What does this fold into?
Amino acid sequence: MKVLVAVKRVVDFNVKVRVKADNTGVETANVKMSMNPFDEIAVEAAVRLKEGGGASEILAVSCGVPQSQETLRTALAIGADRAILVESTDELQPLAVAKLLKAICQKESPQLVIMGKQAIDDDSNQTGQMLAALLGWPQATFASKMELAEGRAKVTREVDGGLETLSIKLPAVITTDLRLNEPRYVTLPNIMKAKKKSLEILKPAALGVDVAPRLATLKVVEPAKRKAGSKVADAKALIDKLRNEAKVL
Ligand code: AMP
It folds into this structure.
């Protein structure tokens, strides 16, 4: 069984994101970039499936700028077998990525697509759902546990106030939540091995996909600064402040 994993290059989660001076987006020049953390979990899930005999090949796919090759090399070092970069320097919105991934699914016929529940840069949480809809495949989002058996996936999902377990028929799309697994560290020998694995580069036009943005970003601004807090001497003073200053009582 072939598994496709989608990996996005995003601003590293440790970096304090800064808004560009002209309010058109966030600063990405000279900023450390890494694989989206939920996508690392997706790659780890695929590698564990392969190690357990449930998958025969893992194809990692990224859509974006040429430097996304580094992200794909990381996926290959974690254990993916080969990679495809759909190269574009244009802004790729979730719908465009979903269409590109659909075209690749049609070419490659994976039985399972694993991707992150959301990209930590745009926080869209849309691409997996859109891909499943475009393909007409079942989807299980926010997976915290997954097991494959007899052409189906049993997926435990993190939902508000609890867990939900679904059984979906393959081929399907699964998106990962934080608790699905803890991705392994990439070792130096595996980084060296990853350099020899196949990384194909395609253009959106070769897949017949129009990636023109459908949404316009009007403005990006920093969150409002919070006012400094103050300490109160006792409960009486707190109640007084809540009643007379905050006027919430
Ligand atoms: P989003 O809908 O943007 O929050 O992204 C959800 C998931 O879709 C990510 O965790 C990735 O697995 C996948 N994805 C989004 N954008 C890309 C991209 N440019 N290249 C590859 N995968 C992507």
The longest helix spans residues 37-51.
